[in-house]
Amino acid sequence: MADFLYESTINFLWHAFTALDTKSSGTVPKSKLKVLTSNMASILGLYDLEQGLDHFRSTPGLNFDNYQYYLRKEVFSVVTGDKLSSKNAREYELKIARLCWLVCCRKYLTRKGLMLSEDSLFKLFVIFCMSSELKTKSGDLRLVTLHPSEAIHIAQTFVNSLGCTWDENEFVDVAISLGFFQFESFVAILETRCFGTIQIEEAVSEAITDLYETYVEDVVKKGYLLKKVNSSLPIMKEYWFVLKLSALEYFKSKNDKAHCGCMNLESGIEVRSKDGNRFLVKNSKRKVELQTKDPITRLQWLSALKIVNDNNSDRVRTTKGRIERQQRFDEQLRIQCDVYRREQTTQMKMIAMEESKRLNELEQLKENLERLLVEAREAKRGEEIVRSLQARVLAEEWERREELEKLQREQKERLEQEVSKRKECEGLRLEKELQLQAAQKLLHQLEEEKLDVDAKLQNALEKIQKIEQNKQLLQNKLVQVASFLEDGSKVRRTLSFMPTTKERPLILEIRAAATLMKS
User: Fold this and answer.
1) Angle at the Cα of 166 (from 163 to 168), degrees rounded to 5?
2) 326 band by pLDDT with thresholds 50, 70 and 90
3) Residue-wise pLDDT tens digits, 129-177
4) What's the mean pLDDT when you consider all of the chain?
């Protein structure tokens, strides 16, 4: 039963693990897994099981395969048998589903175009995980996927609950194109293909609740029935009945959560028809007389009770078959043990024979050794002579070895000296290279400066040449002016239009310039 609980919750745990893997690296830090494990252990009535994660493997995080191995060996295997009845196992499963939903719901509730409430989305999440399988895709990728046939069956049941028209061909085409369904794609298909035109949220929520009761709570049928209150009086009272695979429960009203009574159906029931739309349901401990309002409803309830009874009978047969298989396995194990014992006996006899044979061989070997010992004593004296010769040869070899070792040490010292010199030379070479690089850099800088100076010198020479040319032109002009002045001094003053006070400075300047040029 512990393995059953583990297998039924592993899909929920995969969704929680994937939500904790925020970096999509395939691993989750142990600190996060410890919180998840602690809450799960608290649900199962266990404590401090998360501490073992610190000593489980030497990595800071775990992948899903390692984590599910830890859960199987350290958490679910600790759950005792008295806690794992079928009812308790289903309660544990739903509590763990709620825990995993709290971890991963944020990703689904924040999705764009969401048309469902959180409660409806959680119920679809439980249905999906209970109907899907954990499979390995490419490489080490693990995915919880729903087979297209299961998705089609769930969608058809849902559409029928809504009272809409089921278009199987359209849904089959989508299923074939996808190949498999993950939870997000499954919800998206239901929203777009199944109730995209339904605007009443209560109708969708009620249809999902019916789906949840059918797939999760094993509800076969529900409705109002009249129940006989007293066996001695013909008084009938109306109750809301819920028929499950394991029990027939009844309440005061449809929305009432408190049981008015419950009849166990797992041990088998007997159903008998009576007059007036009545029928009797009987198990090993009690019987209940019920009545419907019309014959059609009565036939529906009788058919549903027959389905439940057949299902429980199949479960009993399955249990008997499992017991028979276990008995056959035990018988095969006993036969194999007998064969193994016989083989062990035969093997021990063979070992005893081999030991006896080996003992005889040892006796013969002992005799041979004694004979060889006598021969060895006779050869001892010759060996002493050989030993003395060997000692002398050994001494010579030892001396040669010492000489070789001394030579080796000298060679090693010379080698170390060579290595040291080589290192020094290498250092000098590096230093020279650095100096050469610095000199080259300086030479390059000087060349650049020389080019700069040459350029400046060339500019200066050009300027000097230009000045010389200007000087020559000026000299020529001054000569012309001087000759002109010498000739003009003979002209009378009355011929000039300008006052003499204004001409005298110009003549003086020209004469001064001529004097300067001559000098």
Assistant:
1) 165
2) very low
3) 998 888 877 666 788 888 888 888 888 888 888 877 777 777 777 777 7
4) 82
Q: Is 491 helix (H, G, I), strand (E, B) or coil?
A: coil
Contact criterion met (CB below 8 Å) for 14 and 36: no
Which helix (H) or strand (E) segment is 53 a member of?
Answer: none
Q: What pTM did the predictor assign?
A: 0.56
The two three-digit tokens of residue 40, written as one number = 């799960």
Instruction: Please report which helix (H) or strand (E) contains residue 270, including its range.
Output: strand 270-274
Q: Would you say residue 498 has pLDDT above 70? A: no
Return the DSSP state at 74.
I
Identify the bridge partners of residue 274 per DSSP, sorted by sequence position: 278
Task: Please tell me the distance from the alpha carbon of residue 289 to that of residue 346, in angstroms, as a whole number.
Answer: 70
Percent of the chain with pLDDT over 70: 84
Residues 6+ apart with CB under 8 A from 49: 37, 38, 41, 74, 75, 78
Nearest-Å Rg of the Cα atoms of the chain is: 56
pLDDT, mean of residues 250-273: 82
Q: What span, in angstroms and rounded, lies between the C-alpha atoms of 58 and 211?
A: 45
Picking from 208, 218, 165, 166, the residue whose alpha carbon sits closest to that of residue 187 is 208
pLDDT of 339 reads 76
* Residues β-bridged to residue 228: 236
CATH topology of domain 220-331: PH-domain like (2.30.29)
What secondary structure does DSSP assign to 398-437, as a single string?
A: HHHHHHHHHHHHHHHHHHHHHHHHHHHHHHHHHHHHHHHH
d(C-alpha 15, C-alpha 128), whole Å = 11
Could you give the CA distance from residue 20 to residue 35 in angstroms, rounded to a whole number? 11
Nearest to 151 by CA among 193, 206, 104: 193
Query: Mean pLDDT, to the nearest integer, of 49-61?
Result: 85
Could you give the CA distance from residue 157 to residue 124 in angstroms, rounded to a whole number? Answer: 13
| pLDDT tens per residue across span 480-496 | 888 877 776 655 454 55
What's the pLDDT at 505? 54
Which amino acid is it at 290? L
DSSP class of 146? B
**Segment 190-203, tens digit of pLDDT:** 887 766 555 567 88
Phi, psi of 241 (to 5 degrees): -100, 140
Share of the chain above pLDDT 90, in %: 22
Reduced 3-state DSSP string for 193-246:
HHCCCCCCHHHHHHHHHHHHHHHCCCEEEEEEEEEECCCCCCCEEEEEEEEECC
Which residues lie closer than 8 Å to 6 by C-beta, 6 or more apart? 71, 72, 76
